[in-house]
Amino acid sequence: MNIFFLLSLLLLPIFSLLISRRRRQPSERVPPGPLGIPIIGQSLGLLWAMRANTAEKWIADRAKRYGPISKMSLFGKPTVFIHGQAANKFVFTSDASKMSNQQTESVKMILGDRCLLELSGEDHKRVRNALASFLKPDSLKNYIGKIEEEIRRHLQMHWQGKHRVTVLPLMKTLTFNIICSLLFGVERGARRDTFVQFFQEMIEGMWSIPVNIPFTRFNRSLKASAKVQKLLKDLIHEKRIELEKGASPHQDLITCLLSIRGEDNLELVSEHEIIHNVMLIMVAGHDTSSVLITFIIRLLANDPNTHAAVLKEQEEIKNSKPSGDYLTWEDLGRMKCTWRVAMETLRTVPPVFGGFRKTLEDIEYEGYIIPKGWQIFWVTSMTHMDDKVFPEPSKFDPARFENPASIPPYYYIPFGGGARICPGYEFAKIETLVTIHYLVTQFTWKLCCNDNCFRRDPTPAPTQGLPIQIVSKKAL
């Protein structure tokens, strides 16, 4: 990180004019707070706090000092930080003509500018509806067996017969294999292995200061992103040929998107949009599900009562079916206790720390003006730990979600909210429930270390990747 600080000083004369323009305020009603060092701003402070597992305190201290709205500079752009239920509602329901999706410049450069995180208005609605046609429950229920096959194969290869495993990297391997199978139609082999290699390099620099200098994480991520996009372009070409030869348009996400037609029978989603949104789903599906499952495994090892309740529910489902039968949509609907545990895990350790929006015009909020072109930054955990809605917020209590309707809107936002809720919510739910079903019914485990700390880079990662000792109950 020190290299970025030194470079910022060296580049200061070059960027001084740009920064001075950004700092000219259209009104004295701009929120309080310093913008910090040019280009760098508060980026290093936030990144260091995330990796030291003190990001929530870093944010809370800032909120305590400046109030519910303050300005800073993150990842090269002037930014306004807002928090609370009203802030969440403001972010997720604002008029698309006033505020657009906006990720950090590093994310935009790595994932592309035609993914859902960047699209607004009619373009956002068009692409989101296309993705939802594949990710909605009515469609996904047809793919439960395919997901289950990947999970069974994974456990046979990486868990059965082992005495010790490291959970997080294995869960990332599992979720990526599910993505390759279900979303790309890429089976095991050299192509999938190549995808994994480039994908892992790509995500390492997602939250970085966007200075493209050789040998930095950001530079490596950009190069890997170009390779992933080339692989996807080749795959799309092959899928088009398969469709022309009569292949089913429902075999995977890419063929589904290619088969959706608009006016004049033209493809509704462009090739660039398919590539950029497939990359987005790769990142979202890989990180959120793998992190969620990992932290559930840690929780079940630490909490015997919760483990017993989840095991009882899953054993009842298993024993109600003939041996070897696949799970059904109805079986997943019976996993209410397990999903409450997952929801409470998402509350206490949200995989997504926060997000960004971009103002398209000067916007008034809480008596201040947020200038046009600035970023708006919101943080998930601020309302997840609000003791007015979640009493004793540091206590793990799945019973909070026995009646989800009792939780006021825009307090619980692990998947976003309103029209901006993640379209992959049901996909993540299926992955999680099926994986936990097989883990608790086929294995027992205990932690190899008692350190419950984790860091964010940018998603949560337990110490040492969560090594556990496992005992197989019987062969799958």
From TrEMBL:
Source species of the chain: Handroanthus impetiginosus
GO cellular component terms listed in the entry, alphabetical order: membrane
Superkingdom classification of source: Eukaryota
Family: Belongs to the cytochrome P450 family.
Gene Ontology biological process terms in this record: sterol metabolic process
Pfam families: p450
Cofactor dependency: heme
Protein name: Cytochrome P450 CYP4/CYP19/CYP26 subfamily
EC number of the protein: 1.14.13.109
Keywords, alphabetical: Heme, Iron, Membrane, Metal-binding, Monooxygenase, Oxidoreductase, Signal, Transmembrane, Transmembrane helix
Main localization (coarse): membrane
Bilayer topology: Single-pass membrane protein
